[in-house]
Design a protein that fits this description.
The chain is α/β, with parallel strands linked by helices. It has 4 domains: 183 residues, NAD(P)-binding Rossmann-like Domain (Rossmann fold, 3-Layer(aba) Sandwich); 134 residues, N-(1-d-carboxylethyl)-l-norvaline Dehydrogenase, domain 2 (Orthogonal Bundle); 87 residues, ATPase, nucleotide binding domain (Nucleotidyltransferase, domain 5), CATH 3.30.420.40; 40 residues, no CATH class. It has 18 helices and 20 strands. Strands 5-2-1-6-7-8-11-12 form an 8-stranded mixed beta sheet, with helices on both faces. Strands 15-14-13-16-17 form a 5-stranded mixed beta sheet. Helix 2 packs across helix 14.
């Protein structure tokens, strides 16, 4: 390492990773970037990464990958992980194949003990930790709005054996004004706890309450909660020999009073039905509290509430795959996690232009799903639609495409156009042979389809009133009743009444 230049591979291109990648590229250091999101990567290949807000920069990259294992051809001697801690399992499976004698790994992630995940695979003597003191939100897949930077960042070798590498990385970032300080292994632990206590105080509160940071700090009642969470964190940290200034609580509150009118990262994930880093933030404070027999009721409450909401959200967007074959479940899982490009064999695209969502699925010649994506069906999503299609055609040799849904005739590139009724029958027959009835609750209509022994459509029925009994109807009524949609079936199941709903237009039914 002393005689060879740093060659950096950066894994994960959320706002933290994108900001880091732009500055490392600007420093002149050889860098390869990697993210499983094919749409994001396709945009970066054409348009680069753009930073806006308190940092205004743009960079283009030569070495861009969607698979960590493909980084082997770049042969990095530094791997920086900027993926969320809960996403590390799959990333490490691939990254372990890149290990070599001179490889060093860096955790640029939020949370307590995340560097230990890397150390378990690569060893403590190869592992470094960063504390990132900037943040941002995505304005587009390849555009990050930098919301704040409170310099410096910190970097350290977790056992102090790689301090020279830590110093080299700090110097690279300092020369492009992303101020970073090299420190010792004990100081980095202190800095990790300071940042985690700050994040734990506000992030879950904002996510559960759907409050921006500024909104949370403008309400005296929530400020009192924030202060108590900080105090719990300090008490636990001090049992771990972490020292704080006497005015640390006031410094924390002053820090958050300067916060912008946007959501912290954990809140964004929770609001958007994604898994969160709660186990490595408030959850770690609870874990260390138990180790020292300290009660942490507020941190425990927020940890469990976030996990419960996340569990409910994931169930609502990823229903059980009962009735699907094991190979189909495996294919669907692969598609959700990014899939794998089939460049050597023919592939086929199905696009369903529904009233609420436009769905894309690519299958290979064996009928296995290799890619899936969806967008809301709105006029302003036309650019996003183009990005998805460009990504699909760049990664898969599409032989034919089929369009269905209300907007099927507006997709001019389709070789085949089929009704939703036909597609529903063929899709159901793939998993359930013989006679069957299919109930398809769409956004703006509901279809009951009767199929014969051969799986062909015998008859079908559609609602004859605007959106009566449809997905839009269910959504509107849930909103009117101030219920979560997922609550409605459970409540209906507890009822003994036999009330019929009128089949009027949804607008009239709602009033």
């Amino acid at each position: 390492m002393e005689n060879s230049p740093l060659k950096i591979g950066l894994i994960g291109l959320g706002p933290v990773g994108m900001i880091l990648a732009v500055h490392l590229q600007e420093s002149g250091c050889p860098i390869a970037i990697c993210d499983a999101d094919k749409i994001k990567i396709n945009l970066i290949r054409r348009e680069g990464i753009r930073l806006e807000g308190v940092i205004d920069k743009q960079s283009y990259f030569q070495h861009i990958y969607t698979s960590i294992s493909d980084l082997k051809e770049f042969d990095p001697n530094i791997l920086i992980f900027s993926v969320k801690a809960h996403q590390m399992g799959r990333a490490l499976e691939e990254a372990a194949g890149l290990d070599k004698e001179d490889l060093r790994v860096v955790s640029a992630q939020n949370g307590i003990d995340v560097e230990n995940i890397l150390a378990e695979v690569f060893g403590e003597s190869k592992t470094l930790r960063m504390v990132i003191n900037y943040a941002g939100n995505l304005n587009a897949p390849n555009v990050a709005k930098v919301t704040f930077f409170n310099p410096p960042n910190y970097i350290a070798s977790i056992d102090d054996t790689q301090s020279e590498i830590a110093e080299q990385l700090a110097q690279l970032l300092n020369q492009v004004k992303l101020d970073t300080t090299m420190c010792g292994s004990f100081e980095i632990i202190r800095r990790v706890w300071i940042k985690t206590i700050l994040n734990a105080a506000l992030s879950p509160l904002c996510g559960i309450g759907k409050l921006t940071m500024r909104e949370a700090m403008d309400i005296p009642d929530t400020v009192e909660i924030i202060e108590q969470i900080i105090l719990e964190g300090i008490e636990v940290a001090e049992t771990e020999k972490i020292k704080f200034e006497d005015d640390f609580v006031r410094r924390c509150l002053r820090y958050w009073r300067k916060a912008g009118n946007h959501f912290p990262s954990l809140a964004v994930d929770l609001i958007n039905n994604r898994p969160t880093e709660i186990d490595y933030m408030n959850g770690k404070i609870v874990e260390y509290g138990r180790k020292h027999y300290l009660r942490t009721p507020l941190n425990l409450t927020f940890t469990n509430m976030v996990k419960a909401i996340t569990h409910r959200n994931l169930l609502s967007v990823m229903p059980d795959s009962g009735g699907m074959s094991e190979s189909s479940r495996s294919a669907r899982k692969q598609a959700r996690s990014g899939g794998k490009a089939y460049r050597d064999g023919p592939c086929y695209l199905g696009i369903d232009l529904g009233s609420i969502y436009t769905k894309f699925t690519v299958i290979d010649e064996n009928g296995q799903v290799t890619f899936q994506s969806l967008l809301r069906t709105l006029n302003r999503e036309r650019v996003a639609l183009k990005h998805v299609l460009q990504t699909i055609h760049a990664d898969f040799p599409i032989q034919y495409s089929c369009a269905t849904g209300y907007g099927r005739r507006h997709f001019a590139d389709a070789e085949v156009i089929k009704t939703e009724i036909h597609c529903a029958a063929v899709g159901a027959a793939n998993f359930h042979a013989g006679e069957k009835s299919i109930i398809d609750i769409g956004g703006e209509d509901i279809k009951v389809i009767r199929c014969n022994e051969g799986g062909n459509v015998d008859n079908f029925y559609l609602n004859d009133k605007c959106a009566a009994g449809t997905g839009a109807f269910i959504t509107e009524i849930a909103e009117r009743a101030e219920l979560e949609i997922s609550e409605m079936s459970n409540l209906a199941g507890k009822s003994n009444s036999q009330k019929e709903l009128n089949s009027f237009c949804t607008v009239f039914a709602k009033t």
